[in-house]
Fold this sequence. Notes:
heterodimer, A: mainly alpha, B: 11 helices, membrane (chain B), BP-dependent_transpt_permease (chain B)
Amino acid sequence: MAAYLARRLIQSVLILLGVSFITFLLLYVLPADPVRQIAGRAATAQTVENIRQQLGLDQPFLVQYGRYLGNLLHGDLGRSYLQKTDVAELIWSRLPASLLLMAGGIACELVLGLTLGVIAALWRGRALDQGLMVGSFVAVSAPQFVVGLLLLYVFAVRLGWFPIGGYGTFAHLVLPALTLGILGSGWYSRMMRSSMIEVLRADYIRTARAKGLDRARVILRHALPNAILPIVAMIGIDIGIFMGGIVVVESVFGWPGMGQLAWQAIQRVDIPIIMGVTLVSATAIVLGNLLADLIAPLVDPRIKLR
Amino acid sequence: MTDVTASATKAPAGALRRLLRRKLAILGLAIIAVVVLGALFAPWIAPYAPEEQLFDGLTLEGAPLAPDATFIFGTDLLGRDLFSRMLYGAQTSLVIGVVANGIALAIGTLIGVTAGFFRGWIGGGLMRLTDLMMAFPALLLAICLAAIFTPSLWIVAMVIALVNWVQTARVIYTETTALAEREFIAAERTLGAGTGRILFRHILPHLVPTVIVWGTLGISTTVLLEATLSFLGVGVQPPTPSWGNIIFENQTYFQAAPWLVFIPGAAIVLLALAFNLVGDALRDVLDPTQRGRD
C-alpha cells in the first residue's frame, strides 16, 4: 500500500510537470503577445521592449520555463501581468467560491442521480423507468450554458424564486449548483440503475426476502448500500469535468470564482494566471483520480491496487 | 478464421435491422435526418439570407420580433430571420461535428492501437501522453487555445479534435491489449502471419464496432463543445451563424426575447441527444456481450 501510494504520488508529480511544460510551451508559441496587452495600443516600440525585458520575456524559452519551475518549488506562482498581484493570492481568494459551487454541484448530482436511478431500477421496464432514462440522456446532452440560462429564466426571471446572479446567500447557490450537477446526475442515474438492478438479482437479496423481511426493508437496508458504494467511488473523477464546467456556470451566473478568474485571464492573455489556474485544476484532477483509485478497492475488495 | 470474416461481413445488415427495432434509435436517426436535410438544403428552405438585416425585422422601438406567421422563429437583435440563421447554423454544427470528431477519432484510434499492439517503450510513451492529456482540464484548454488563436471554423475543429481524442485512445488501447492476448492471435502468429497481417486482418476489423460507437457518441461531445466555445465567444465567429454564437450574440437580451436563446438551445440539445441515443443503441447492438441484457 505504502509503495503503491509512493509510486502514484511520484507519477502524479511527473504528470503535473508535464502539464506545466506543455501549457507553458503553448502559451509561449501562441500568436498572442502579452506585452502588447500590458503596454496598450499607444505604446512605443521602446516601451514594449522595456516591459518585455522587465518581465524576462526576451529570454529563451527554456530559461523562462526553468525560472518558472524554480519559483514554483517555492510555492510562487508568479505575478499577474495586469493586476499586479500574486497569482497564488488571487487564486486563493477565488477558491472558496468555486469549492462551494462544486460541493453544491456534487450534492445535486448525487441526490438527483441516485434517487432517480433507484426509482428507475425499482420500476424497471415500466413507462416511468423509460421516461427517466430518456430524461438522463437529455441531461447529458444539454450544454451547461443552456441549462443555466433556462433555470435562470424560469426560476429567477419568471418565478422570481431565486436571485438572477451573484454570490452571498444560499439562494444564490441553488441555481448554479443545480446547473453544474444536472450533467452528472444523468450519468449517475444510469449507473445507479444498472448497479441497483444487478444487486437486486443477487442471491443474498433473495435470501433476505425468503427470510420473510419486507420489501422496503430489503431495498433500504440490504440492496441500497451495496448498490451505492461502487458509484460513490467515482466522485473523484467528476472533479475534472467540474473544472471545465465552472468556467461556463460562473460566467452565466456571475459567480466570483476561479472559473471567472481564468476566463478573464484568457481574454487578456494574462499568462501567469492562466498557468496558475491550469496547474491548480490539473492538481485537483490528478488527486481526484488517485482518490477514486484508492477508494475502489475499499468498496470492492476484488479490485487490487497495481 | 473464415468464421470471423464471414460474421464480420454479415454483421452490418443484422446490426442495422436490430438498430431499427429500437424506438429511441429511430427517434435519434430521425432528428439527425431533419438536421442534415435542413443544413444541406438551407439555401432553398431558408426564407431569407442568414445575414440579411430585414427592413421589417424589428419593431418600431427596435426590439426583435417574437415568433409569428412571417418569422416562424422570430427575429434577432439585428432584425435577421432566426429560422434562416438556424438552418445555416446547422451546417456549422454538422461540419464541426463530423470534421473535428473524425480527426479526434483518427488520432485516438491510431494512438490506442499503436500503444496497445506494440507495447514496449512506444506504447508506454503514448499512454503516458494520454495520462498527461487526461490531467488537463479539457474545457479550459480548449477555451484557452480557441481564445488565443483567432478562431475560424477550421481552427475550432482542430482545437476540439486536440482535446477530444483522449477518451477514444484509452478505450481502443484497452480493447487492443485484450485482443492481442487472445488465442486466435497467438494461433495466427504461430502459423507465421506477419505483424501487418495480424494488425490489419485481425485486430483492426475487431475494433470497428468500438470505433463506430465512440465515433457516434463523440459527435455529441463535439457538438456540445463547439456550442460552448461559441457561446463564450471564442468559437465560430459571427457573422457565420452557429447555434452557440446565436445565443452568444443575443444573450444580453434574453429576458425580453427568450426565444433567441431557447430555440437554438433546444436545437443543440436535440442534436446532441440524437447522437447519444443512436450511439447508445449501436453499443447495445454491436456488442455481443450486451445482447439479451435489458
